[in-house]
Amino acid sequence: MKIMITGASGGYGSYAVDYVKKFAPEAEVYGLVRNADNAAKLEAKGIHARIGNYLDKASLIRAFTGIDRLLFVSVSVHEQQINVVDAAREAGIKFIAYTSLHEPQYAKFGLEINHSQTEELIKKTGIPHTFLRDSWYLEMAAPLAKTAIQTGRYPYYAGEGKVSWALKREYAEAGARVITGEGYPEIVEFAGKPVSYREIGEAAQSLTDKKIDIMPVTKVEFGKLMAGSGIDDMGLYLGNAYQDYAIVGNNGEAESTSDEFEKVLGHPLTPLAEAINELI
Predict the structure, then answer these.
(1) Is the sign of the CA dihedral 14, 15, 21, 24 positive or negative?
(2) Rg (alpha carbons) of the chain, rounded to whole number
(3) Alpha-carbon distance 90 to 236, whole Å?
(4) What confidence score (pLDDT) does residue 228 get?
(5) Mean of per-residue pLDDT scores for the chain
(6) Share of the chain above pLDDT 90, in %
(7) Closest by alpha carbon to 19, among 33, 50, 8, 165?
(8) Taking the chain (280 residues) in consecutive chunks of 10 residues, what is each chunk's mean pLDDT?
(9) What does the domain layout of the chain look like in residue ranges?
């Protein structure tokens, strides 16, 4: 059996390559990368590398030829996703596991549109498939927790709004289990236990002996307090974006459950404080 992971040099893909090799030692494991340098790094790990680019369908067809099962790691540009699906069909891929979005029937930064459309494209190919409906990476909330430990202050304005997080490596492990296994349904919902931003602050507090002032504030106050805190621009952007998302609600987050995720993994998800500690 020949298994390919796309985006094999990225965060999710790198984890997935290692898990696939672990779960299916008898399989020939391939990674799709965009250049020779990344290909060399994969080959050094004992992974067959093929070079291809989502922008270039012909390169994808070449890379996918002879592959049996494809772990399709999604991107946000729909036109590129179309190329991957078309190439998989033309190359004769026999099974696709696609990293989709948890509960895309809800508004989720507009990402639900791309993922829903890509799921439909895959369905139309007739290729057997499983949609890995992943929720959010805890990595995106970690900068606030790290800054809280460094500064002793944790302002937040999301109230009781909740988001379902899990570690990127846990989503990748679940994807690897699906692509190397059999008998999974068309859709698997992968979500962590929903937590509030206050709970993230409390988890950070549990990791340090220093007192952290966990402060419910307004959005304006949050911005002022974070200024000069040392958090980088991306961390601050994500802190605002996901708090706004949590406040608006009507997104399925609070009702999410980790049951299906943990069933596929075969073990519980990493507890929140332990997961944050791993990231910071």
Answers:
(1) negative
(2) 20
(3) 43
(4) 87
(5) 97
(6) 99
(7) 8
(8) 97 97 97 96 94 97 98 97 98 98 96 98 98 98 97 97 97 98 97 97 97 97 94 96 94 95 98 97
(9) 2-134, 138-165+193-253+270-279
- Output DSSP code: residue 255: T
DSSP-derived secondary structure letter, 181? -
Helix (H, G, I), strand (E, B) or coil at 19: helix
Fold of 2-134: Rossmann fold (3.40.50)
Angle between helices 142-151 and 233-248 (to 10 degrees): 110
Q: Which residue type is seen at 64?
A: F
Per-residue pLDDT tens over the stretch 63-82: 999 999 999 999 999 999 99
- Give the containing element (helix H, strand E) for 64: helix 57-64
Which of 58, 69, 4, 1 lies closest to 33 in space, CA to CA?
Answer: 4
Global pTM value = 0.96
The DSSP 8-state label assigned to residue 92 in this structure reads T
CATH class of domain segment(s) 138-165+193-253+270-279: alpha beta
Cα distance from N-terminal residue to C-terminal residue, the chain: 38
